[in-house]
Amino acid sequence: MWTVTGTSYLTPLTLAAYAAVMKALRGTKVTLTVDSTEAALTAGTTCTGALTLTVA
After folding, report:
1. Which CA distances in Å does 8 have to 18, 31?
2. Whole-structure pTM over 0.85, yes or no?
3. How far apart are CA 25 and CA 36, in angstroms?
4. What is d(CA 30, CA 23) in angstroms, rounded to the nearest whole number?
5. How far is CA 17 from the centre of its chain?
6. Are strands 23-24 and 3-4 parallel, antiparallel or unpaired?
7. Are 13 and 47 within 8 A, CB to CB?
8. Averaged pLDDT for residues 24-51
9. What phi, psi does 48 have (nearest 5°)?
């Protein structure tokens, strides 16, 4: 389990088919952008490119 607490830069990111949606601290939301375009965090997928996870 990973609780995102701040901006993270990754490449690539693979979410297992059984993965839960990534979580942030209570009252915040995690957003994924791929090459500066917002993308969904979906179990069973792999994202490649310039990935940024932000917490707001």
Report:
1. 22, 10
2. no
3. 23
4. 7
5. 15
6. parallel
7. yes
8. 92
9. -130, 160
